[in-house]
Design brief:
The complex is a heterodimer.
Chain A lengths: L13 E6 L8 H16 L5 E4 L7 E6 L15 E5 L10 E4 L4 E2 L5 E2 H12 L28 H11 L5
Parallel strand pairs in A: 1-2, 1-3, 3-5, 6-7
Antiparallel strand pairs in A: 4-5
Chain B lengths: L6 H19 L11 H11 L10 H8 L2 E2 L7
Classes of the chains: A alpha/beta, B mainly alpha.
Amino acid sequence: YKTFPGNPRWKRTHLTYKIVNYTPDLPQKKVDDAIRRAFMVWSDVTPLQFRRVFKTHADIVIRFARREHGDGQPFDGRGAVLAHAFYPGEGIGGDAHFDDDERWSEVNQEVNLFLVAAHEFGHSLGLGHSNVRGALMYPSYSYVNPATFRLPEDDRRRIQKLYGTKSS
Amino acid sequence: FPAQLKPESRSDTDTEKIKAYLDKFFPILEKTQSLSLEERIKEMQRFFHLTVTGKLNAETEETMKQPRCGVPDTAD
């Protein structure tokens, strides 16, 4: 359950991301900030660095979408599946999609965008689901306070197995 | 009196529900081609540290209802 088949990982540590659209549930600036902090969850413990681009090609494309949205994995309306992502690779590889039928929030109401984004970016970097309760990469959503969020040991160990530690 | 939902039709619905969940999140892979539905339910119950019964019980149903990520739990 730990990583995707063949352990796909990015062959470089400097990656780019692009936000192609926004949810109406939050001010754009709040979305930008939640995405930035979600990437920091992973760059804080590895040599990975994430740079936002606006018009050029990006390794990780971030999109809000409803129902069928062009990747053959339609969302299902409010509840159930909240988001999904694709493991590292060209094209759709690394991309993360968020179901805009959810109500996205930055607090403990509805669905916290920062927490779901941090989880999805784990997939974008090559992590599969963990069956360790409390792990960020556990499949089911549960709220923890983003202000005091610390990456659980299981997730930190697995991402460092793929990309090394921050110092290296 | 309201017509009693025939027990078998409820279980048909349940079977379809759990099968759809398993197909999405515990997809049949090469190595799991021949697993029975009961075995596939056990695989899901083991992953989520539930009581392994192979049957759709309350805690398994509860787990299926939780909001979650759309990426499968078992990778090929």
